[in-house]
Amino acid sequence: MALLNAELTGIAKSNIIPLGSFMPIWAAVDQKSHQPLLLLMEECVAATTPKLHPDDQVYPLITNKGCLVESQRGNSVFLSRYHSSSIILYLQSFRFGLGQEVYIHCKLVAWDPDLLDTTKKACYYSKTKERWELLDSPERSSICSCCASNCKTRSKRQTDNEPEGLSYRSVVGPVIMVEQSDKDKIHF
């Protein structure tokens, strides 16, 4: 995972993010000789620590097995994919940890693109359509309807016969979100 620049052409040169602006967070998996893999962000939280501990205060960004809850509060979205093995979370900055170092912690899952369901998905809330949308197949957005409540996990019996996918925890940061007027005062 990495923080991209505003043009999405490379790694960001600054980790100072003015409040309300966007932080493009890119994640990718190297497919090598594997079958096509779809990279999903199953869970992401913001925290003021580089390592998560049970008593840390966190700000949920993606919950419920791939639901971008931050898209309901702000204007965050998943950008259209250029390759199935990568994903860009276009995250609008937020007040949590304002002025402090903030780390984005995510659980990434590489999954079979043909097996999307309520437990393996990338959904965001479309304010114009007033509903949850599936990034990869908008016509199948019904699997995102559980984002408004609770997306049930697979039963143990079902997972015995199905691929598990590959999961990995990753962290981006620190980023420092500042009020617009403070941006010019901080130099790194």
Automatic annotation (TrEMBL):
Transmembrane segments: none annotated. Residues 1-130 form the ZP domain. InterPro entries: ZP-C (IPR055355), ZP-C_dom (IPR042235), ZP_dom (IPR001507). Keywords: Disulfide bond. It comes from the Eukaryota. GO terms for biological process: binding of sperm to zona pellucida; egg coat formation; positive regulation of acrosome reaction. GO terms for cellular component: extracellular matrix. GO terms for molecular function: acrosin binding. PANTHER family: SI:CH211-14A17.6-RELATED (PTHR11576:SF3), ZONA PELLUCIDA SPERM-BINDING PROTEIN 3 (PTHR11576). This is ZP domain-containing protein.
